[in-house]
From TrEMBL:
Protein name per the record: Acyl-coenzyme A thioesterase THEM4
Source organism (scientific name): Nocardioides caricicola
Pfam family, one: 4HBT
Keyword Transit peptide among record annotations: yes
Thioesterase domain span: 123-195
Keyword set, alphabetical order: Apoptosis, Cell membrane, Cell projection, Cytoplasm, Fatty acid metabolism, Hydrolase, Lipid metabolism, Membrane, Transit peptide
Amino acid sequence: MSIGEFVHDETPSSEIDRLEALYRPLADAVRDLVDATIRTTVDDATIRRTQADVEALVARLRARQLDGPAGVRFNSEARAWNWGNAVVGQRNALAPPLHLVRDPGGLLHADVVLGAAYEGPPGLVHGGVAALLLDHLMGETASAGHSRVTLTGTLTMRYRRGTPLGPLRLEGRIDREDGRKVYVVATLADAEGVTVEADGVFIVPRWA
Ligand SMILES: CCCCCCCCCCCC(=O)SCCNC(=O)CCNC(=O)[C@H](O)C(C)(C)COP(=O)(O)OP(=O)(O)OC[C@H]1O[C@@H](n2cnc3c(N)ncnc32)[C@H](O)[C@@H]1OP(=O)(O)O
């Protein structure tokens, strides 16, 4: 196998719900801290005091922690959780996070608001962030409701115009399949229409 294991973990779904409700507000607060760190205009002494406070909080959390990343875990109730995921991780303040919605007819969509932490060109979403979010949405589209594992083989992006920071919508659907190759198309759009088009080949790996 070329990636880390998907770990079977018999934590009941009710406990996963409880833990997610516990950690989500912490991740939200840290995400807010990231935004505040970018945009604050307070004086130098306040910055230094805040740095010391944040370092103390980090030390408190590091008192007990995992040896490595959070990974992907699942239980026999068909519940899967990937709390560290860069796009949807419930405990990851770097993730916007994206909330994926599966529509009847196979379309997968997500509405998201991207703030100052996702900036590339002034006022616009970083092109790599657009690719990151689309890659994840497309991978989830290809995996058809977690019924199979797919990995990104090739991803092509066409940036039609700059994507303003603010409210955005992603949509993806399977275009066609050929053996283990799943061809997915997706868009990123603002209120004015599509800003980025993507197409990709997602592959059910030989080992899956
Ligand atoms: C809560 C739970 C959430 C779980 C869900 C979470 C979803 C997360 C979604 C995020 C998606 C990611 O970012 S995934 C991470 C980024 N991607 C990766 O790290 C993938 C790294 N690459 C690989 O592991 C491998 O190269 C694979 C799996 C892509 C292919 O390996 P393989 O399985 O051995 O493939 P192989 O037999 O050689 O080829 C099979 C067919 O695919 C074609 N093919 C092979 N590679 C490619 C390629 N890169 N691009 C196009 N086509 C390719 C071959 O020509 C062949 O076509 P033919 O001869 O049959 O016609």
